[in-house]
Amino acid sequence: QVQLVESGGGLVQAGGSLRLSCAASGSIFSIKTMGWYRQAPGKQRELVASITAGGITYYADSVKGRFTISRDNAKNTVYLHGNSLKPEDTAVYYCNFRHNPIGWGQGTQVTVSS
Fold first, then answer.
1. How many other C-beta atoms can be found within 10 angstroms of the C-beta atom of residue 54?
2. What angle do CA 36, 103, 40 make, to 5 degrees?
3. Which long-range contacts (CB under 8 A, 24 or more apart) does 68-75 make?
4. Adjacent-strand bridge partners of 18
């Protein structure tokens, strides 16, 4: 059974940066396209970025040029670096498979103050 554990969130001032990590258990991680999602209060969960097993990336328009997704298959970990953070980036951030997501973890809270 695959488990996903997010970490690295916190409080940051607008314009600051953050790095989120997602550690996955299970041997299938290395072949899966992984995604970072976020859910702001009162809004639906949305896909922020994804990365294929081969390293091809996708970014939502709202974060393009500011966020970078990466992965380390040897460590079963996917990362999300955020720069030039904005108050509208405030949300709970989750990682999951890009296609056919499994059970959602607790996520990690990111709060950007203005």
1. 7
2. 45
3. 69/34, 69/36, 71/34, 73/29, 73/30, 75/23
4. 82
Residue 25 is predicted with a pLDDT of: 87
What is the per-residue pLDDT for 70? 97
> What's the pLDDT at 29?
82
In the chain (114 residues long), the average pLDDT of successive 10-residue segments reads 92 97 86 95 97 96 98 94 98 95 93 96
Evaluate whether 41 touches 113 at the Cβ level (below 8 Å). Answer: no
| Location of structure tokens 């314009």 | 15
Give pLDDT, residue 11. Answer: 97
Which bin fits 106, alpha (ψ -120 to 50), beta or left (φ > 0)? Answer: alpha
Contact 83, 64 (CB under 8 A): no
- Under a CB-based contact definition with an 8 Å cutoff, are residues 48 and 38 in contact? yes
